[in-house]
């Protein structure tokens, strides 16, 4: 049973975090998350289903980066503050969870404009209600000057229904919503949302 111990975005109504419902449970979970991320040894990391509570010092994403840096050393990891970079409050949506981007400043530097695809056409995917989480795009430059773009997504799952019922074609719930979202994402990415002109997109 969930507890309403989160919010639907910054300033939103109470929501179920869908994660730990007690401090003891949280303290059991976060060290495993930190160990898994450190084990990846990646310079840029897209994350899904992190609590959507902004980017301040007490936010979930700041807590995660602080714990990573406790293990790896101060300043080893940082995160993209999507609200600050886009100038939009809750740019990553107003669900209880969102996507995010972590990176290692010693290896890569964010460049260009942070992009947030949070239109109803993408998020709803043609459905009557929001289904996918907003997508975040960020360009990075490596120490040798190479550039690439990381786009982080969390499309609607197959685990729960959309307005249209499962078509029974083996695709699961909400296939049309995911297809529409993919088309919207493709069309958005070709508009160069980071302003870098780079076409190396992950």
Textual characterization of the structure:
It is built from 5 helices and 8 strands; from the N terminus they run E-E-H-E-H-E-H-E-E-H-E-E-H. The chain is of the alpha+beta class. The strands form 3 sheets. Strands 3-5-4 form a 3-stranded antiparallel β-sheet, covered by helices on one side. Strand 1 (6-7) and strand 2 (14-15) form a beta hairpin.
Beta-strand percentage range: 15-25%
The SS-based structural class is alpha+beta
The arrangement of helices and strands along the chain is: EEHEHEHEEHEEH
Instruction: Give the overall silhouette.
Output: globular
Largest sheet: 3 strands, antiparallel
- Provide the helix percentage: 25-40%
The neighbouring-strand order within the major sheet is 3-5-4
**N-to-C CA distance:** 36 Å
Number of helices: 5
Q: Tell me how many strands there are.
A: 8
Global Rg: 17 Å
Low confidence ranges = none
Mean pLDDT over the full residue set: 95
SSE topology sketch:
Blueprint: E1 6-7, E2 14-15, H1 23-40, E3 44-51, H2 60-72, E4 78-79, H3 82-86, E5 97-103, E6 108-117, H4 120-123, E7 133-142, E8 147-154, H5 175-189
Helix pairs in contact: 1-2
Give a brief outline of the structure:
The chain is α+β, with helices and mostly antiparallel strands and 202 residues long. It has helices at residues 23-40, 60-72, 82-86, 120-123, 175-189; strands at residues 6-7, 14-15, 44-51, 78-79, 97-103, 108-117, 133-142, 147-154. It starts with 5 loop residues before the first strand and ends in a 13-residue tail after the last helix.
Main attributes?
three-stranded antiparallel sheet, globular, alpha+beta, 27% helix, single chain, 202 residues, 8 strands
